[in-house]
Design a protein that fits this description.
The protein is an alpha/beta fold. It has two domains: 336 residues, TIM Barrel, CATH 3.20.20; 122 residues, Jelly Rolls (Sandwich), CATH 2.60.120. Helices cover 26% and strands 25% of the residues. It is built from 15 helices and 22 strands. It has an eight-stranded parallel barrel, surrounded by four helices. Strands 13, 14, 16, 19, 20 and 22 form a six-stranded antiparallel β-sheet that branches. The protein has a four-stranded antiparallel β-sheet with strand order 15-21-17-18, with no helix packed on it. A hairpin with a 2-residue loop joins strand 17 and strand 18. Helix 6 packs parallel to helix 7 and helix 11 packs parallel to helix 12.
């Protein structure tokens, strides 16, 4: 069964920044053409960088206007010249993409970062590191309404998305909660302008933060938006470090949307953070097709109405196009190989930025990883929960492998470490050890447990760890860095 599948292109990184001007029509069509022949139904296009729009707007500043001459930034120069080369032909860069999408049978979603401040006086920004437009100012709200009105009336888009996930504060952190009503009133106004727009079938939605707490802490109230019918769709996500989270807490918003016309889309971020990952621009691994399969399957199982994928490794190759084909079909995913990863508490970004409340953990989006087992707290159990969509019992005939992978630092052979899955000890399950770090093998290891004889359950699983004892001469702690689980299926029954 096919579902709505949205592919996001932010206009910059794999588009306007890349191609050498003047822009050919083949290059101008690339965001559409590169996903044709997959399960993608909708192109989501980020119409601006927060300091400028990527089309000839009458309501806000076009990107690059305040940056010329471009001082050493060739990518910014390319973006500016590419836009202007299309405009010189009498073409609107945004309408070019809309027309191409419709010609090829795709819906077009215009996505606007609500932190947009291009053309605004900097006095209207939040007074804090990475501060963007402060919505407590009427001038800011009028500015963003003008841009949204322009998109709704002047372009034949299919949906209009307000991106609240990028920079998750629209008021100073100390004032966010008290301004929730202000933002809801703005959404009411946007709903009215969409209803009065030239496009009577235009859908209105928003990217929001992963939990209800994170949204309220950021000055957003999706519960009221759903209850009052102010949006047609919502897409929970978290930007920083772009880490794929197959267990993103979607249940709350899915439950709120039941018996309403509001659709919920799950966001598939493109990366798995690896060793040395402690900063926003640290070492990234592109999420594998199996990782994307696992996250997509989880989201469907929890009840989402569709999926959105962040821009993937570019240019899109066989792996990426295969992923975009597979994840659009719920049935196809059922017996697809999967690689589940448990999200870490990795906030990333500037420490000053995080200190002021902008981090995931400060806003309420937390994880149990990394997990410390302290030598002075022997016998105390700690657990991690993770969701698995696979039905291991019903698929047992074609199930070839289930492996639980635990990356643990500073464990030694004399440690007595009790590991349980759903209350059952893994002591008697086959376990293969691997070095966790090629350059520093002494730092940690992967414990790979074969679970074919002790299968996980469909739904929520509980991994429990207890440090019973350590050698007398060793007083350090043990650190559980990562929890992953791989599932492999065969084409034919493994047994008769």
């Amino acid at each position: 069964m096919s579902s709505k599948l949205i592919y996001y292109n932010d206009a910059r990184h794999y588009y306007l920044y890349v191609f050498e001007p003047p822009m050919s029509m083949e290059d101008a069509w690339r965001p559409v053409d590169e996903v044709l022949g997959t399960s993608v139904t909708t192109l989501s296009y980020g119409v601006e960088r927060e300091d400028g729009i990527f089309y000839p707007s009458k309501k806000t500043m076009q990107f690059g206007k305040d940056r010329r001459p471009f001082k050493g930034e060739a990518l910014e120069w390319r973006a500016w010249k590419n836009m202007k080369s299309l405009e010189a032909k009498g073409l609107d860069p945004l309408q070019v993409l809309i027309d191409r999408a419709h010609d090829k049978g795709l819906e077009f979603m215009a996505s606007l970062r609500m932190a947009n401040w291009g053309g605004l006086d900097k006095s209207l920004k939040i007074d804090m590191p990475e501060g963007r437009a402060n919505y407590s100012n009427k001038e800011v709200r009028q500015h963003i309404l003008g841009v949204l009105t322009e998109l709704a009336n002047d372009y034949d888009i299919d949906s209009l998305e307000m991106d609240f996930a990028f920079v998750p504060y629209y008021f100073h952190p100390d004032e966010a909660k008290e301004n929730v009503v202000v933002m809801t009133e703005l959404i009411e106004t946007v709903r009215e302008l969409v209803a009065k727009s030239n496009n009577k079938n235009l859908q209105l939605g928003a990217r929001i933060l992963p939990t209800e707490e994170t949204n309220i802490n950021g000055g957003l109230d999706p519960r009221t938006w759903i209850k009052s019918g102010l949006v047609d769709f919502l897409m929970p996500m978290w930007y920083q470090v772009f880490e794929l989270d197959p267990d993103m807490p979607l249940d709350w918003v899915i439950q709120l949307s039941k018996h309403t016309d509001v659709e919920i889309y799950g966001m598939l971020m493109p990366h798995k953070i690896q060793e040395g990952r402690r900063s926003l621009f640290g070492q990234w691994l592109n999420a594998s097709p199996e990782m994307m399969n696992a996250a997509a399957s989880n989201f469907y199982d929890k009840g989402v109405d569709g999926l959105c994928t962040w821009f993937m490794k570019w240019p899109l190759g066989d792996n990426e196009r295969s992923t975009l084909s597979n994840i659009g079909d719920r049935e196809l995913l059922k017996y697809s190989n999967k690689h589940y990863v448990v999200r870490r508490n990795e906030d990333g970004g500037d420490p000053e930025y995080n200190k002021h409340g902008m981090s995931a953990s400060n806003l309420g989006y937390t994880s149990s990883l990394p997990l410390e087992l302290k030598y002075d707290e022997l016998g105390q159990s700690k657990d991690i929960q993770f969701y698995l969509s696979d039905d291991f019992e019903s698929s047992s005939k074609i199930l070839n492998q289930i492996t639980l992978k635990l990356q643990i630092k500073d464990v030694v052979s004399e440690d007595e470490l009790l590991i349980k899955l759903n209350g059952k000890s893994l002591h008697d399950q086959p376990c293969v050890k691997e070095y966790a770090n090629v350059t520093s093998p002494y730092q940690g290891q992967w414990l790979n447990f074969d679970l074919m004889n002790l299968k996980p359950i469909k739904g929520q699983n509980i991994l429990e760890l207890t440090l019973i004892s350590r050698p007398d001469e060793l007083e350090g702690d043990i650190l559980l860095e990562d929890v992953e689980l791989t599932v492999k299926y065969g084409s034919y029954p493994s047994s008769l």
